[in-house]
User: Fold this.
Amino acid sequence: MDQVTDRQDGPHLRRTNELDALAGILPADRREALAALLTDEDVATLKHLAEEGMGANTLRALASDLGYLESWALAATGFPLPWPAPEGLALKFLAHHLWDPVRRETDPGHGMPEAVAAGLKAEGLLRTKGPHAPGTVRRRLASWATLHRWRGLAPTFATPAFKTALKFAVRANARPPQRKSPRAVTRDVLDRLLATCVLNRLVDRRDRALLLTAFASGGRRRSELASLRVDQIEALPPVPANPRDPESAKLPCLAIRLGRTKRGNADDGSRVLLIGRPAEALITWLDLAGITDGAVFRAIDRWSRIGQGAISSDAINDIVKRRCRLAGFDPALFSAHGLRSGYLTQAARVGVPLPEAMQQSQHRSVQQAASYYNDGERPMGKAARLYSI
Assistant:
């Protein structure tokens, strides 16, 4: 009852107004919910992180994780999230989120209690029926520890005993890791998506430019596409269609300065290239839309009116799924991240060396890039064909 009252009184309104100051970072549909979940101290921490220049995507993830932790603590203990959080509370968090589904069949008390789960589901914070993905749990624990440090506190649960418990909990969780996009958007899939952008409408021109830019620039993340601005694009001299023949036909070439990304800073000088059809598609979209500054990819309403602000990351995911549906694919099998994994998978298929592909995709981790790259090579290699040779 106190929580409901708090959502209607002055503190809740004040927190909503404070979060409105982060309008460029936190989605509008989440600010109202976060104002109800977070404390004044939480909001102050988020504002401080924004002022320190923390990346928008990182801050969004921290805010989301903090809101979940606050709500879970209240549902699980009846008290707000304490700072610093004791090791026992972190162990309870593990027990509620990483558990053995087989044991749950014979022990209903194993895992997250039904009352806690029901409370989180009622707030729209819990969607999974089984244990959480280990990656999600690790991310929320990392956010928890980060927020401790930004409050000037030591994360007391970061002990050797807790790390051991986490390792055992992950091992007990039989849930296999899930990729962000079950299937990669490789060249053959992309061609079918582009074939749905055949009408001479602005929305088709935008979607064609978006899909080609995302794929050809190394599989850009949807957040990078959403934040892409005209001043990040630089026209370079045309390049020969055949690199070995300087006199061959010339292709348009654009450079995209990436700015701040998930793994890089705004000032690290990273840039990727668009050559040929992708560059032409992007130039055509900007010309037809009359966009000379500001956001590159924008919302378009049913009357073909173009918005002023950038399209959202979620909208980019929706575009990919809509084009998949129009192309005859099951949209549940694809997401915007499939363009990223698809780029590296395609690079492997056509024999592009991994270091060269990584230069365009801007992956920092060879292990992560190779996981996509090798998936493309394995069906064509000898290792899985020993009995077939």
